[in-house]
Amino acid sequence: MQRALTGLGYAVVLIAGLVIHPVIFAVVYLGLMVLSLVEYYRMVDLAGGNPQHINGIATGVTFFVSLFGFAYGLWPLYVSLLSVVLLFSTFVIELYRNQPKPLSNIAFTLLGFFYIGLPMGLLNLLVFHGLPYENTYYPYVLLGVTIIIWVYDSGAYIFGTAFGKHRLFERISPKKSWEGVIGGGVVALLCGVLMARFFQMVDLLNWLIISLIIVVFGTFGDLIESMLKRSFNMKDSGKFLPGHGGILDRLDSFLFAVPFVVAWLYFARL
Fold it and tell me: How confident is the model over 78-99, as pLDDT tens digits?
């Protein structure tokens, strides 16, 4: 019951954050990004690292806010270069911190941005369309992507539990199976057909391609987060979501699939 209620509340917050207003979207998803970065840097700390928490989070926030402001029509795109300045300042800051293992500290700090801050910032390019000439807020592509990810994860779990015999990547995730991936993939493709029916800004072919991207790269995202947690010797990324673990545990597939979905949609000129 706890897990179900938490999952329902999480879904309501994400969907409401998308459909109510662009500023609400920015607040909700920026909050998710900050919580994810806090979890990530905490895991690094517990594993013996010493990343630059404030600079890492500030870089992610700057990137997200600058892209949102551009997409919302508040300022030009070059404002996002401020995040590049903060990225390179990581090296200078580490020079003055005088901490052990400076290269590891720099690497862990930058990884937080590329793993979490970058894909979350790119969400702005997924919900605003017609850039740079128009600033049309259409959140339903991201909503459809989110639903497909949820459906794929659920389908993979159900099929894997019922029929899973052939391990997908036993060294990293002993419970995941090829049967789960295939069964979840079929369900994701069927969900893509439904998304084409409801959210017609993207046609059927491209919704099917998006579904395949989610199956492939969402699976990699799940495995990569498992790899990180194993390397940090942790079961969950945090305890923010009772019954589910941390925010990162819910966003692992999402974070890795989103950049490829955005790249495909811009390649397809949608």
Answer: 999 999 999 999 999 999 998 9
Residues contacting 214, CB < 8 A, separation 6+: 145, 148, 149, 152, 188, 253, 257, 261
pTM of the model: 0.93
Close Cβ partners of 109 (under 8 Å, ≥ 6 residues apart): 51, 52, 55, 56, 90, 94
Q: What angle do CA 107, 111, 113 make, to 5 degrees?
A: 130
Distance between CA atoms of residues 193 and 190, nearest Å: 5
Structure tokens at 62: 């700057």
Nearest to 111 by CA among 164, 36, 184, 185: 36
CA distance 199 to 38: 34
**Residue tagged 């991207």 (tokens):** 213
Q: Give the N- to C-terminal CA distance of the chain in Å, as an integer.
A: 40
Burial class (CB in 10 A: 0-12, 13-18, 19+), 63: buried
